[in-house]
Amino acid sequence: MRNPQLNDAGELTHLLSTDGLPREVITQILDTASSFLEISTRDVKKVPLLRGKSVFNLFFENSTRTRTTFEIAAKRLSADVINLDVSRSSTAKGETLLDTIDNLVAMHADMFVVRHASSGAPYLIAEHLQRVGRDDVHVVNAGDGRHAHPTQGLLDMFTIRHYKQDFSQLTVAIVGDILHSRVARSDLHALAALGTGEVRAVGPQTLLPSALDKMGVRVCHDLATGLRDADVIIMLRLQNERMNGALLPSAREYFHCYGLTPAMLALAKPDAIVMHPGPMNRGVEIDSEVADGPQAVILPQVTFGIAVRMAVMSILAGN
Amino acid sequence: MRNPQLNDAGELTHLLSTDGLPREVITQILDTASSFLEISTRDVKKVPLLRGKSVFNLFFENSTRTRTTFEIAAKRLSADVINLDVSRSSTAKGETLLDTIDNLVAMHADMFVVRHASSGAPYLIAEHLQRVGRDDVHVVNAGDGRHAHPTQGLLDMFTIRHYKQDFSQLTVAIVGDILHSRVARSDLHALAALGTGEVRAVGPQTLLPSALDKMGVRVCHDLATGLRDADVIIMLRLQNERMNGALLPSAREYFHCYGLTPAMLALAKPDAIVMHPGPMNRGVEIDSEVADGPQAVILPQVTFGIAVRMAVMSILAGN
Amino acid sequence: MRNPQLNDAGELTHLLSTDGLPREVITQILDTASSFLEISTRDVKKVPLLRGKSVFNLFFENSTRTRTTFEIAAKRLSADVINLDVSRSSTAKGETLLDTIDNLVAMHADMFVVRHASSGAPYLIAEHLQRVGRDDVHVVNAGDGRHAHPTQGLLDMFTIRHYKQDFSQLTVAIVGDILHSRVARSDLHALAALGTGEVRAVGPQTLLPSALDKMGVRVCHDLATGLRDADVIIMLRLQNERMNGALLPSAREYFHCYGLTPAMLALAKPDAIVMHPGPMNRGVEIDSEVADGPQAVILPQVTFGIAVRMAVMSILAGN
């Protein structure tokens, strides 16, 4: 079966997942993002690459922050951005998802940025576009269920490459609720594609998926073991709904076992970087002293995220 | 009384209804829309006709889809578009509709796109603007109560003209809940103005208005009779709230009597086109096989709708 | 302590309050606004002064009208405007206000327009930006709690100067619920800075703050006394929530004592102007005959408000 993200020439036509994304495509995105990083520091932060293109933000699940990053990226590329409040739209009136897509394509949409609570929704849209022969319309997955959040995965890779260069020499620890995290899943696939030296998944048994060892990931239930001599630490957000449930005793207990404190951070390499996809729960998964400390690169991640999203959009629009 | 849609020179100054719209004005809009059709297929889908103009979307009744079509049309004309969430605005704080309008005019609004649950609200605004001497500010009715939805009526005419050319030779069947449909009302007036050969209204007695025969419309309570040898079939959306009420036994029963199936469609001319204003209730008023079949022009309607709205806005801004 | 609104060169770097704003800065804003007034009457109502800048509307408290005025002002300066629905954003997920700000700064925000129910929130943001060394990011207070609404205060000054010129010769009466009004507070500070001849606060004891006399304001509990020979009358909106509470017997009673009727207006100078920040409660604080009469300058206030906001934004972006 053809990789649904690539066209016949092997070029990126949708961004759905970091799973199955060839290393060269990832590298192309990161290289393009490097060139965009400078634009956001200019006095006039705009390039005309998507001028006259219509980008639709289809957020079936609410996320002001992620929507904002895509909106900024698209506007800096000079696109026309249309935000659809999908929860109040025709889809709510019983229209099917694909009828909605067909309608927007008929309005000459060029790109859909899709966030959906159901895993696979962006795939469904991409497959439909292929079926109706519209290779000129592109889908970017902005997070689907527990499945994937590829632009977050790519901006994480951009961040690691920015600070650490050679992936093959690195030890990367991902800490927290990996089971429910589309960010972790996207990071794991991208880290594998880029040939990362050692990848560790750190968390309580109840929050780790079972197939990790088959992916070549080292599983650690103990935070100290997981962090020792790490070059990169990726902390995950603990969703509020997990904190008082069957999976976890309490937020305080979680912080005690898996919270990143200065003492714990000291176990990693002295020049280790600390990442977090945001928004942070200070005092739950991360101590404020670490979050605001010199090793944290959490705000640079946000800056890189705009450049990575501009890169993805401009590559899609160019193909 | 002066036609409230036209200025003293007989030019379009507001678009409020297809009722009373002279044939030449309708033709001017359709001809202008033809020229815009090409813009949406360009690489850079923009023309500077409304650059620096402020278009306000005033949707007192929520409709993401219709608002989106106007937003796209305005942005492709390079206008600044401001979406007002009117349900949360000063009007909700007890300010009158006309105070809101006066305020927006004081901010140098150029155009209001108005959707309102009350029939006549866009007229009220247009009359007020005339009273205060602001001929340079224009109103487009985007649907008012059960009264009118003139851009939908005009895009339907554009669609018919596109596929069928000469209206005088055509038989057009409008099927469904005509009584509550502002789309049907706008179509009926426009079809009359363009000298359509035969217009049929098809539906159960409870969903047809009483004055149809006085408008020269042929009333059919039987779908087969209504469709026989028709050139154009316009299916109407059955509002959910009608389905279990006093007017209709059930959605299943409705589909049995008035749903457009392949067998029913076969009664029309072999080259008949099938239209629907969307969003469709598949399996209620239309069978999916017809909706997705070769005679359906439902998605082209959407494409034409952008061009027609661009035409209306550019004509208004030019006058 | 350094004035948090000015940089070391004494130039405006944030607009937080009219309190402490030097007279020359106020005059600079009003003079700049005069030059912008003409732009909104042009055919193409746009200047490229903020092209490529990202302006974020952060409305923690809903206000469609005020947000719209800032959105129009920013778009006429060619900025990219991003509206954040903050009530649905990460802040709602427990992220702190300053984490949200840090994130948006990392996305290369240039300006924040902030409305917040808590007095001081815009100050907090401005202080934070100074602490992290980001003098290139600017805050405009669009209303914080009962504290300040400086762009409204400045547009009121613009209006008075437009119609009356020399402040030192004027008697200005502010009528209504001064205790809870950030507009009144911003007007009082600006009127003082501009050396207004006589300022009167008119209202029932329960709706006037206690420290007015220390500010040199003459307190009048009787409307007739308050209006006599006034040049300028600023009516305040009576918030609905005040009308049936402990502070006021009823809206009807209030109108009887403090509503501006034609008879009351006749006590002021014959060329007195009547102002109101909107939205008006007709028949509560102001009679429709006055609101729509020749002495009302309520709609010009709205027009001037766009020019004043363009002036503030362009001065901030230039510094």
Automatic annotation (TrEMBL), chains A, B, C:
Pathway listed for it is: Pyrimidine metabolism; UMP biosynthesis via de novo pathway; (S)-dihydroorotate from bicarbonate: step 2/3
Q: Which GO terms describe its cellular component?
A: cytosol
Task: Give the Enzyme Commission number.
Answer: 2.1.3.2
Task: Report the enzyme's class at the first EC level.
Answer: transferase
Q: Which residues bind L-aspartate?
A: 93, 182, 237
Q: Name one GO molecular function term.
A: aspartate carbamoyltransferase activity
Q: Boundaries of each Aspartate/ornithine carbamoyltransferase carbamoyl-P binding domain copy?
A: 14-161
Gene Ontology biological-process annotations: 'de novo' pyrimidine nucleobase biosynthetic process; 'de novo' UMP biosynthetic process; amino acid metabolic process
Q: Which Pfam families match?
A: OTCace, OTCace_N
Q: Does the keyword Ion transport apply?
A: no
Q: Which UniProt keywords apply?
A: Pyrimidine biosynthesis, Transferase
Return the PROSITE patterns for the record: CARBAMOYLTRANSFERASE (PS00097)
Q: Which reaction does it catalyse?
A: carbamoyl phosphate + L-aspartate = N-carbamoyl-L-aspartate + phosphate + H(+)
Ranges for domain Aspartate/ornithine carbamoyltransferase Asp/Orn-binding:
169-315
Q: Which residues bind carbamoyl phosphate?
A: 65-66, 115, 149, 152, 278-279
Its quaternary organisation is: Heterododecamer (2C3:3R2) of six catalytic PyrB chains organized as two trimers (C3), and six regulatory PyrI chains organized as three dimers (R2).
Protein's job: Catalyzes the condensation of carbamoyl phosphate and aspartate to form carbamoyl aspartate and inorganic phosphate, the committed step in the de novo pyrimidine nucleotide biosynthesis pathway.
So what family is this one in? Belongs to the aspartate/ornithine carbamoyltransferase superfamily. ATCase family.
Q: What is this protein called?
A: Aspartate carbamoyltransferase
Q: Which gene encodes it?
A: pyrB
